[in-house]
């Protein structure tokens, strides 16, 4: 009896030992640097949609789950952040931004929300008086609706207020500029100046004199050269302001679609970003593209992209994408349409590239594994971009480069399913579809009601299997993504117009809009394995929000405040409204 009893006792011991050994097998849980507890975490991970706590070590998430699970990662030096039941989600990626241009514009005169010409003039006057040190007065954000007679600005309105210093102002959409007489004079633009390829100087129909309205490439090609370049210190200061603003609204990564305000565009500033990184001052992650201008892709341009990719290709800085402008914008009749504009049948817009040359360029970049971004707004331009990507895939036998089309404002209905079929990323900026007068009168008026119904078809592209990647197009609109999320859900102005939403069938849901700014964005950048959702092993890039988006009306989302932004496990922004409970209250 004793023996068997001993035996069974021994057996129990063995089982106990085995069980505890198996629990203790492997190394103990890795201690975390930071544990965030008591949160409502929307992970964007379909396998584990919601969680309560998260453990971070270094730059990465090491555990996510309930408080108890994550507690096992508490070590001696682990810090705790009590989220106080706040909503946490992955930090946002802005998939289409002109980061340096936007950052520089923070320091310039802002005409974004000026509604009358008198208001615009007053702001410029005030800014000019406040900045006697500036040789050139620069700014942006004016709207076509300010100029009721022609829809285009005129130098006379600027000469009235600033006759003696050059004034140069970018329109809100970045496609038309407004110069005063002094600016035209310094840039050497007269009646005799020829229009460059891809742009034009608007002229008085009677006298032939330039009016001060400058379209598309004429601005870069001719006027930009007359403006002194920003110094490196100015660029550094601007970028730091830009990142601060980005982190403040919840951005952790920007995919920059090149810029024009600094000679050489984004690529010319890569070293400045790199210096910021080395000195620990980079608080957003960046991807950069290089603009390829018509008439053709030069071998040296492809080599420059490849060299930049070789040098910059990590989690913080990566360069190596190509950006094309296939057309302009609908508001100025420069978007390339398959049929004439409704309000002016003499125009149907223009492709900025010869179609064959563009297709050849895309195919060459594709063959070298370079992702392509194509700005295409009119249905004709969008079709050409899809054709070019399809052609490249066919001849190169490539399939996963995830080429993108930017803006996609008015595609033909038959082209919408091609995004899913070809695996082309749909890079939309939801605030561009904000249904104000500019959209409902100018934009829709120019193409007419039938084509306007196809405007910004988020839902249809997604239903066809296309991946949505959202961004702002800052500085064209605010880099704050929350009004964009709201508009993706409502397609209404903040005043609730139009009732029921503009083209309501193209609205999307909150999880879909969040996905487009997070995991969809990460997919667009080939980063879905390391970013875009909150999962163990991914980068700890996350935001704590002031309100629970899942519990409020969509019309309230635009007011969301970010309380805390964490990038790579480090707090890079903390709102004045964020407070931690006293240590004594901590559980
Ligand atoms: Zn853009």
Question: Main traits of this protein?
Answer:
587 residues; alpha/beta; eight-stranded parallel sheet; 32% helix; globular; binds zinc ion
Ligands bound to this protein structure: zinc ion
Point out poorly predicted stretches. Answer: 1-24, 583-587
- What is the CA–CA distance across the termini? 52 Å
* Spatial shape: globular
Strand content: 15-25%
Counting DSSP E segments of at least 2 residues, the number of strands comes to 24
Helix/strand/pairing category: alpha/beta
Largest sheet, strands/sense/barrel: 8 strands, parallel
Number of helices: 19
- In which order are the strands of the major sheet placed? 8-15-16-17-18-19-20-21
The helix fraction, in percent, is: 25-40%
Rg computed from alpha carbons, rounded to a whole number of angstroms: 27 Å
pLDDT averaged residue by residue: 92
